[in-house]
Design brief:
0% strand
Amino acid sequence: MKHILCVSGSVPGRADGFQDLLCEITHQTALVIQAKGGSLPFITYMDEKCQVTPATPQEISPYGPI
């Protein structure tokens, strides 16, 4: 998983083991809470921050499509 949103032109970095574990626990907790019909704003916020879509090559390359 990638966990850093791009605010500059740089490519997001890879998460380390602790970040992967934290995001996995947060995601599983959010799924359980949502399955029971509830929500916790902090868990939802953390889950959304962990789910970053991979960039396409066109978004990464400063020279356009590869």
